[in-house]
Specification:
Blueprint lengths: L1 E12 L10 E17 L5 E4 L5 E3 L9 H13 L6 E7 L9 H16 L6 H16 L5 H8 L3 E3 L6 E2 L6 E7 L6 H14 L1 H23 L5 H15 L5 H12 L4 E5 L6 E6 L4 H10 L4 E7 L1
Parallel strand pairs: 3-5
Antiparallel strand pairs: 1-2, 2-5, 2-6, 3-4, 6-7, 8-10, 8-11, 9-10
Helix pairs in contact: 1-2, 1-3, 2-3, 3-4, 5-6, 6-7, 8-9
Bound molecules: (R)-mevalonate (MEV).
């Protein structure tokens, strides 16, 4: 019995603008994960999806628009091999459709598990490109940041279609993640920003570029250990995302609640319109911020250290 694990992710800076070629920063969240365990099977290939009432999923090429099926199809196409006689037990602690990369993490763990059972050795680069193809179902026109941070499991400074740059963290810092519990479809928010880009290219373009500059400044702060500089950058980035219409009343309220409880900075994270926000905290205020988010209605509150 072998298990393959892939982490969740959060975007620290640059979501949405990254779709237009601006840089963004994302980090893995190892405490939340998708896991695929391989066991021998007596009745052919199957997936047991434990988070969906242990439903049994068989490969069915007519369901190719479904992410698990697309993942299996891409793997067979790439390797030229058929699916092995194993059962894959899938479990995930990552909330779905909440901007934490649950889809990309599940595809990554599944690809690694099934390819190992096929004796097909896939490089990270290949896994990344296959997961990116699956991401198109969730995101429409993904930038590739979510699959990249999850597959490589490293903090990254990401620019679409450019070599991946690892971010070096000069001083570790702590974040609290607040989940609004509102499921949000990333491709809808991404599509709405695209409409803004079409109807008002000048101011939308300026906002997108301003977000890119914030990501560059944030990289410098992170790589030189000036963590408190991130607070003001988070504030500016959140404001620009509000102007791009991808925040939500709950996300704004959570950001306010975190700041009032002493957070250094706070912003929405990921696709927006629901999903998650992040707050940068010190050890002294971490608990107060977590409590403030629960009081504001967060359905999950997670703490993670970026190191
Ligand atoms: C979603 O996690 C991040 C977005 O920038 C979309 C993307 O980059 O594909 C909103």
């Amino acid at each position: 019995m072998t298990s393959w694990i892939a982490p969740a992710k959060i975007i620290l800076f640059g979501e949405h603008a990254v779709v237009y070629g601006e840089p963004a920063i994302a980090v893995p969240v190892a405490s939340l994960k998708a896991e695929a365990t391989v066991k021998p099977s007596t009745d052919g290939f199957k997936i047991i999806a434990h988070d969906m009432d242990a439903v049994i999923v068989r490969y069915d090429v007519s369901l190719i628009e479904e992410p698990l099926q697309r993942t299996l199809a891409l793997l067979q196409q790439y390797t030229g091999k058929s699916l092995p006689d194993v059962e894959i037990h899938l479990r995930s602690s990552i909330p779905m459709a909440s901007g934490l990369g649950s889809g990309a993490a599940i595809s990554t763990a599944l690809l690694r598990a099934v390819s190992s059972a096929m004796d097909a050795d896939l490089s990270d680069e290949i896994v990344n490109s296959l997961v990116f193809e699956v991401e198109k179902i969730h995101h429409g026109t993904p930038s590739g940041i979510d699959n990249t941070v999850i597959v490589y499991e490293q903090p990254i400074f990401y620019v679409r279609n450019q070599p991946i740059e690892r971010l070096s963290i000069a001083r570790s810092f702590k974040l609290i993640i607040g989940d609004t519990g509102q499921k949000a479809l990333t491709h809808v928010a991404v599509g709405d920003v695209r409409k803004l880009m079409e109807t008002d290219p000048e101011s939308t373009g300026k906002r997108v570029k301003a977000i890119g500059k914030i990501a560059v400044a944030a990289r410098q702060a992170i790589e030189t250990g000036k963590i408190t500089d991130l607070g003001v950058l988070m504030h500016k980035n959140h404001h620009l995302l509000q102007e791009l219409t991808v925040s939500s009343p709950d996300l704004d309220q959570f950001v306010e609640a975190a700041l009032s409880a002493g957070a250094i900075g706070a912003k929405m994270s990921g696709g927006g319109r629901g999903g998650n926000m992040i707050a940068l905290v010190t050890d002294d205020c971490a608990e107060a911020v977590a409590n403030a988010l629960r009081q504001a209605g967060a359905v999950h509150v997670f703490e993670t250290t970026v190191a």
